[in-house]
Amino acid sequence: MISQKKPLGDDHDSLSMETIYNMLMMEIEPELTLDMIPFLDELYAGEPEDMRKERALRYALAFEEFGERFEKAMAIWKKQIVHLRDDAFAIAAKRMNKEEAIILSDIEHSIDRT
Questions:
Q1: pLDDT for 24-78, tens place per residue?
Q2: In degrees rounded to 5, what are phi and psi of residue 109?
Q3: CA distance 27 to 93
Q4: Residue from 11, 62, 1 nearest 36 by CA
Q5: How far apart are CA 111 and CA 114, in angstroms?
Q6: Which residues contact 65 (CB under 8 A, 6 or more apart)?
Q7: pTM recorded for the entire structure
Q8: What letters, b where the CB count within 10 A reaches 16 and e where it falls short, cover 9-41?
Q9: Which residues contact 105 (CB under 8 A, 6 or more apart)?
Q10: Taking Cα atoms as reference points, which of 76, 8, 74, 96 lies closest to residue 107?
């Protein structure tokens, strides 16, 4: 029997996404981690206009870098997950009789098409 999973977006998933965001952003621009963002107005109160513009540009570049790194990480994770899924199907197929293996193969092919 397949266990029931919580829908995406629950607190656990959000915490995981926050952790991933902070982990990536910490290496790029620590001021843009989720813990720091609420304090930026206070931290930079009275900042001269030219320095504010310079910081805004730095932040824009940081978000661009974040997007690139996030895409790379997702591609790596997807590749690893697909590999694990394929291994799981192979192990399950070995343990099932031929008819059940055909059904499992059909399921695998339908997943690949999505």
A1: 999 999 999 999 999 999 999 999 999 999 999 999 999 999 999 999 999 998 9
A2: -65, -35
A3: 43
A4: 62
A5: 5
A6: 28
A7: 0.65
A8: eeeeeeeeeeeeeeebbeebbebbbeeeeeeee
A9: 93
A10: 96
